[in-house]
Design goal:
It contains eight helices and 19 strands. With 343 residues, it is α+β, with helices and mostly antiparallel strands. It is globular, with a radius of gyration of 21 Å.
Length: 343
C-alpha cells in the first residue's frame, strides 16, 4: 500500500496531530431509555509518516479475547510517538452485544454480515456504515480479532485472501502456524475492506466469553509482528529468528464433521491434534450409553476448531479439520509455537 499517514488526521470530527494519542467515542445511537451508545477507539500517531493500521475486536460481542489483546497492545511502550504511521484501535465494535454477553445485535443480526452498511439501514447496517467511514476508510491495513462461536473453540489461526500478495505477506508476518485461504463471506468486514483495496487479516483463536492467556498473547505478538513488517515499528528479533518463528502452513482446504444423529459426545481428539483418515474423533451415544456411533476422520489433517458442548443435535458441527500437504510438519510446528507462548 502507498497511502501514508498525513499531517492532518481526523476521526469523528476529532483532529489527532503527529506524535499524539487520543481516546474518542464514536456515537452510534441510543438505547430505548436514551442511554447513549458509542464505539470506544484510541488513535495513536507517530511523529513520522507511515501506514495506517486498524485493529478491531468484538465485532461479535461475546468474542472477548481480542478485546483484552487490544487493551494490552495500547499499553506497550513501543506504541507511541516513536512509532511510524498511525494505529486505530477499536477494542469493542459491537458494544450492544458486548454489554449483553451476546454475539449479536439487539435485533439478532450478525454485525459481520452487515457491511458495508447504509446510513439509513438497519441498526447493524448503520453501525457497519459508521465503522467503514470513520475507521476502515482511513486505513491502509487491517486486523480483525475473533474467537470461536459460543460453545466452540478455535486453534490460533489466520483467515485471509492469501492469493493477494500483500495480504499473504501480512499473514506470514503475523506468525501463527496455521493460515486458511478462506473465501470472503458476503456482508463481512473483510469483504468490504477488500473492495476498498485494504489488505486485512482475520485472526481466530479460543472460545467466546473467556480470557485465554495463550490466545491473547499470540494475538498481541502477531499484531506487533505485523506492525514491524509494514514499517510501523523497529524489529526486535534478528531476520533469521523472525523467519524461523514466522514459518506458517497454509491449509489447502478445510471441512466440518457434523453429528450423524443427536446424543452426547465423548471426544477423543482436541484442537491442534493431527488426525489421519479413519481416526476416532469421538463417540456419540444415547442417554443409556447405547446406540453408539463412532465419529471418524474422512481425510487426514489438523483439528483447527471443535465444539465444547457435549450435547449435540443431528447436524451440529463437531470438528473443523484443515488439510495440509504435510500435516505432520504442521503438528510439530504447533508444538513449538505452543511452547513459545507459554504463560
Amino acid at each position: 500500500m502507498t497511502a501514508l499517514a498525513s499531517r492532518s488526521f481526523e476521526i469523528a470530527n476529532q483532529i489527532i496531530a503527529p506524535g499524539k494519542r487520543k481516546q474518542i467515542e464514536i456515537h452510534i445511537g441510543r438505547l430505548f431509555d436514551y442511554t447513549e451508545i458509542s464505539i470506544p477507539i484510541e488513535v495513536i500517531r507517530g511523529e513520522q509518516a507511515g501506514p495506517v493500521l486498524f485493529v478491531s475486536g468484538a465485532i461479535h460481542g461475546d468474542e472477548i479475547n481480542g478485546v483484552e489483546a487490544i487493551k494490552r497492545l495500547l499499553t506497550q511502550r513501543r506504541i507511541g510517538s516513536r512509532m511510524r504511521g498511525t494505529l486505530i484501535a477499536a477494542p469493542i465494535v459491537n458494544v450492544f452485544g458486548f454489554n449483553n454477553n451476546s454475539r449479536y445485535l439487539p435485533d439478532r443480526r450478525d454485525l459481520n454480515r452487515c457491511f458495508p452498511g447504509s446510513k439509513n439501514g438497519s441498526l447493524g447496517g448503520r453501525i457497519a456504515h459508521i465503522v467503514m467511514e470513520e475507521i476502515v476508510s482511513k486505513a491502509t491495513h487491517g486486523i480483525d480479532l475473533h474467537t470461536g462461536a459460543i460453545h466452540r473453540t478455535n486453534l490460533p489461526q489466520i483467515r485471509a485472501c492469501l492469493d493477494e500478495p500483500e495480504t499473504n505477506k501480512l499473514a506470514h508476518a503475523f506468525g501463527v502456524p496455521v493460515a486458511i485461504n478462506a473465501t470472503i463471506r458476503d456482508g463481512s468486514l473483510r469483504q468490504s475492506a477488500a473492495e476498498r483495496g485494504i489488505p486485512m487479516l482475520l485472526f481466530e483463536g479460543g472460545e467466546a466469553l473467556r480470557y485465554e492467556e495463550k490466545i491473547i498473547h499470540s494475538a498481541l505478538r502477531g499484531i506487533l509482528s505485523v506492525m514491524e513488517s509494514i514499517g510501523m515499528l523497529e524489529p526486535r528479533l534478528s531476520k533469521k529468528k523472525v523467519q524461523k518463528r514466522k514459518h506458517i502452513f497454509i491449509a489447502r482446504s478445510s471441512y466440518w464433521i457434523r453429528a450423524p444423529h443427536s446424543g452426547s459426545l465423548r471426544v477423543k481428539k482436541h484442537c491442534g491434534d493431527r488426525v489421519q483418515k479413519g481416526d476416532l474423533l469421538g463417540i456419540l451415544s444415547d442417554p443409556y450409553g447405547t446406540n453408539r456411533v463412532e465419529i471418524q476422520t474422512p481425510k487426514t489433517g489438523i483439528i483447527v476448531g471443535m465444539t465444547l458442548l457435549p450435547l449435540v443435535n443431528n447436524g451440529d458441527a463437531l470438528f473443523h479439520v484443515a488439510t495440509f500437504d504435510d500435516a505432520e510438519a504442521v503438528e510439530e510446528r504447533l508444538g513449538i509455537f505452543d511452547e513459545s507462548i507459554s504463560v
